[in-house]
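Reply to dn_fold:

You asked what the input looked like. This is it:
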Amino acid sequence: MAKQMSILPFTGKLGPLIGYKRNGQYFLRSMPESVRQTTATRRASRRFGIASRKGAFIRKAFYPQLDIHCDGGHINRLNRILIAAGDHHAAITGFRFNQHAGVDRFFTVAPRLCNNGILHIPAQTIAGYKGIAALEVKVIATRIDFISRQVTGSETVTLMIAPDTTFQETNVSLDVPGQGSLVVVFQVRAMYKDGPSRGRQYMAADIIAVAAPQVLRYAKKRRYPKRTRLLPNLTYTYVYPAIIQLE
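and this is what came back:
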């Protein structure tokens, strides 16, 4: 590992050298002459590639609607969760785009998504903060098809809540049609009288729910035994489902 002392430091590959940045400083390392991969390392590399692409897709789906600054490590944190989760996308529930503050800082009783698509925010006491005039709550509901990697629908709802008061329970309808999983982000920003706070401890955006896509189930049509025409002057004994004729 060598430190870059040039006027124009670089990152990435340059000939046999690789430039990279760590803790605000630029370093160099040489590329290995050959890379020997085992079956396990190839499998791990494949999992990492799938998770990183999926993580990039999730971030890009929410970036345009987020109003907070994400922390510098949120990309790697999301990738680690996705690597461990595989196809279980519900594992990203609880992920924080800003690790310095979560929704629980402002709402001690967590909101929850009901089966009917209603986000229930329970009644609770909202704490007061020095100089904070209001809390801006933004609910971002986005339907994501992870198979085709498409955003099939999105909806946002914004509420203004007074701090240092008792909050009455509220239900927010999240009607987002389309295919794929419904991913819900709950964002909170502390607001001064002249605008939002820039302090990282006064802004939060968490993934609070991931609802799996609905699967249509078709009921099988009940089949009944075919009716047999009875002949006159004969005695029949019925044994379900067949009919046996007696002489």
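The chain has two domains: 1-33, 42-211.
Hope that clears it up.
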